[in-house]
């Protein structure tokens, strides 16, 4: 595949398009509801346990079932978005959130709460997959990191709103009413987002994939700053879709036209070397995002602070709000670093900081665990280490995961390739959230964070060896980037063999 590089975005410094920004913000708003559900559940569990009298095992199940269902949702979302489009897939995610929130808000018993959580989980799977993909497909190479990380920022904002909701509603409403309103109120923004999505344009790359060139060109003119930029992007997308770059028909039949058929074979059964490398990178980064323990901190932070010595329920919820503020603050910092510093460097700095913070957290919690009295320095160190870990995670690994996996796959494989990554993400998320209580009871809470520190060390080396830098590369150049890396690896192996002989 040959790309025309007559147009260079670096020669046009004002490449940030306001209309593309608005589209990405609206598409990302569904992630606020997803994040809210995660954040509010961390505090709601305290009240649900007291009201419904559920066990630790039931708590683990209700916390983790969302991610099991999100796994199903994410695998379905790839094919769905190829069939009905990116925009209507976001609309569907909003409707699922609305139905799930209503069921949980009603929640007369554990069974109905469980069903509502499952429906929300399907919505989470759809939202996590489609938000970054849509944002990546409407953005230019120079602003893709910023726009594609907006869904992750919105998740962080949603988590923070969930924590604040816990604190306010938990203090001022009765036990039976409080947690139900905490969970059910998410139905309102879901409806607003559903209608807002309908005012957005469809992804130009999906439109080209369907042969709707006239509509695609119109959208590209809206999300590009100049006609020259729009024409350049349009030409590259047509080539990626298997069309003649000079074709100007309104509607055509693309050479690689599909609504998802045959993609699984191309991804899993018979991948080319570059596609195999892309899949390894996407699966790996999603695996390590949660294998390094972030869900344990975000979902069970009240338990961590209680173990460290914070006893008051109000102080527990306030300390948890601090976690949310830290998350959002450093996600905002990451927004402006992704397109300047690059994905690889942010990952290396981020995971390096996480290793240190997790080690310190494991040490301080172990000290508290082995003492019969309250140790003030260990309590302070535990809180500082928790906040430091959240900060380093959200300045790098958190947002880069979603940006990277949404941008590396070729057009024909992007939606379902991203859905595989999200499926792995949700699987590990579910595993951590549903087993964390059992794990820390088996190896102590300090031991569990030493385990996460060890996983972070492995993650650092994986990112160093398997993830090439994608900053500033057009989506249509990714296959060449990973082909280049594959060739470099083969040349190195041949050179080593020749040297040994």
TrEMBL record:
Record's subcellular location: Membrane
GO cellular component, one term: membrane
Protein name: Major facilitator superfamily (MFS) profile domain-containing protein
GO molecular function annotation: symporter activity
Residue ranges occupied by any Major facilitator superfamily (MFS) profile domain in the UniProt entry: 23-471
Stored InterPro entries: MFS_dom (IPR020846), MFS_sugar_transport-like (IPR005828), MFS_trans_sf (IPR036259), Myo-inositol_Transporter (IPR050814), Sugar/inositol_transpt (IPR003663), Sugar_transporter_CS (IPR005829)
Topology class, membrane: Multi-pass membrane protein
Pfam families per record: Sugar_tr
Transmembrane stretches, start-end: 21-49, 61-78, 90-108, 114-134, 146-169, 181-200, 279-301, 316-338, 345-363, 375-397, 418-443, 449-467
Main location as per UniProt: membrane
Keywords: Membrane, Sugar transport, Symport, Transmembrane, Transmembrane helix, Transport
PANTHER family linked to this entry: PROTON MYO-INOSITOL COTRANSPORTER, SUGAR TRANSPORTER
Entry's family note: Belongs to the major facilitator superfamily. Sugar transporter (TC 2.A.1.1) family.
